[in-house]
Known about the structure:
1 helix; 3-stranded antiparallel β-sheet; alpha+beta
Amino acid sequence: GGWGGLPGFGAFAGLGTQKSRVKLTRAEQRPPRGAEPLCSCGKYGQYQVRATGKDVCSLECKLALITLDTSKGLPGGWEKGSTPDGTPFYIDHNSRSTHWELR
């Protein structure tokens, strides 16, 4: 199952009901309470993107996350990191593994 036909989100119970439907925009989401997951926009990260493991608040923020990944020249679900001494490495959130080179 996907969210709005997009892969990467699990199926949500009650998608068709107004009370529990998936949030389409960040404006629809509430602020986080306590130690709840946080979206990059600062709202409650109610959903987790399987490909990246990152929390998002809405479809809008999921699309922004995917665009951000591809605009950096990385495959979807990949992130570039660096060791404390500055050596670059790559994180593949899809397979939950790290690599010294892009594969």
